[in-house]
Design goal:
- By secondary structure, the protein is an alpha/beta fold.
- The chain has two domains: 8-55 and 153-307, 3-Layer(aba) Sandwich (Rossmann fold); 68-147, 3-Layer(aba) Sandwich (Rossmann fold), CATH 3.40.50.1100.
- Helix content is 42%, strand content 15%.
- The protein has helices at 8-18, 57-64, 69-74, 83-95, 109-117, 129-143, 154-170, 185-197, 213-220, 243-252, 261-275, 285-291, and strands spanning 27-29, 41-46, 76-79, 99-103, 121-124, 146-147, 176-180, 202-208, 255-259, 302-307.
- The strands form two sheets. It has a six-stranded mixed sheet, with helices on both faces. A four-stranded parallel sheet has the order 5-4-3-6, sandwiched between helices.
- Helix 2 (57-64) packs across helix 7 and helix 8 (185-197) packs parallel to helix 10 (243-252).
Length: 316
């Protein structure tokens, strides 16, 4: 594995490495009373039931287990919109080491409280993730601590890719797979796994209207830094992605569509009412794109939707 690529073998190795340290979350068929999506065979992968409430521990643990133990002993550090920070705090607990989490001011208070409960040191820095990340990078260099990046690390991408392996093992007939995008690490891993296992599958990413980081970068053919962020969904709102993610997404993702905050909230309420699933706004983003008709889904198509995180921010 190089800094520029992630293979199916890397993801399979990650699956073996993290086994027993994270949950194999359920994949459920969605039998809905009110389904505006039409006669789809709809399957949901419930990463909202993962330890810490999102898919993030997969990548964090896979990265941790490949770091120099001497550096890990000095502590681990990251910047997060909340979910990755919880995963790194969880990883720190497993390694019995110090975990320092930098967060932007917009991080929900409930995630900050959970981080304290996991024993992490929390530092609030900046108004967006990118500002918190700059502070985390400086901290890691200053104290020679190991940095676990939320998306710009092939070990993290490979760990997130294990979601795709499990999804296709449980629902092997998927025609379409829909995944939310923040920095791009999750969809990079999932799409790599999915296209390797099932080359004909269509993979669609979903970003907030107020933070179209990867869709703008794809349009430009290079990494783009957004001049402003206009979404309350901080976990999907870096101003800039990373080259590894853009390269993988360019090769493996068929389309990126946009949804607004209100549509994500509507999808979160729909998931709760129809299926009893408590998804945060980012966790409902993929479902929002399907419910809003942003994705062309043919009748009788088998569709997989990732519910990537738990929370109550969709229920004001």
């Amino acid at each position: 594995m190089t800094r520029e690529s992630v293979s199916l073998a890397d993801i399979q190795a990650a699956a073996q490495r993290i086994a027993g340290r994270v949950r194999r979350t359920p994949t459920v068929q969605a039998a809905c009373l009110h389904a505006p999506t039409g006669p789809l065979d709809l399957w949901l992968k419930l990463e909202n039931l993962q330890v810490t409430g999102s898919f993030k521990p997969r990548g964090a643990i896979n990265c941790l287990l490949q770091l120099d133990p001497d550096r890990v002993a000095r502590g681990i550090v990251t910047a997060s919109g909340g979910n990755h920070g919880l995963a790194v705090a969880y990883a720190g607990r497993q390694a019995a080491t110090r975990a320092v989490i930098y967060l932007p001011e917009t991080t929900p208070s409930e995630k900050i409280e959970k981080l304290h409960q996991w024993g992490a040191e929390v530092v609030i820095e900046g108004t967006v993730w990118d500002e918190a990340n700059r502070a985390a990078l400086a901290h890691a260099e200053r104290e020679d601590m190991a940095l676990i990046h939320p998306f710009a690390d092939p070990r993290v991408v490979a760990g997130q890719g294990t979601v795709g392996l499990e999804f296709l093992e449980d629902a092997p007939d998927l025609d379409l797979l829909v995944v939310a995008i923040g920095g791009g690490g999750l969809i990079s891993g999932i799409a790599t796994a999915a296209k390797a296992v099932m080359p004909g599958i269509r993979v669609v990413g979903v970003e907030p209207v107020g933070a179209p980081t990867l869709s703008r970068s794809l349009e430009a053919g290079e990494l783009v830094t957004l001049s402003e962020i206009n979404t309350a969904v901080g976990t999907l709102a870096p101003a800039r992605s990373a080259q590894i993610n853009l390269d993988i997404i360019t090769r493996t993702v068929d389309q990126i569509v946009l949804v607004d905050d209100g549509e994500m909230a509507e999808a979160a309420r729909w998931l709760w009412f129809e299926l009893g699933i408590a998804a945060e706004l980012s966790g409902a983003a993929a479902m929002a794109a399907l419910l809003q008709g942003r994705i062309a889904a043919e009748p009788d198509m088998t569709v997989g939707v990732l519910v990537c995180g738990a929370g109550s921010d969709g229920f004001p």
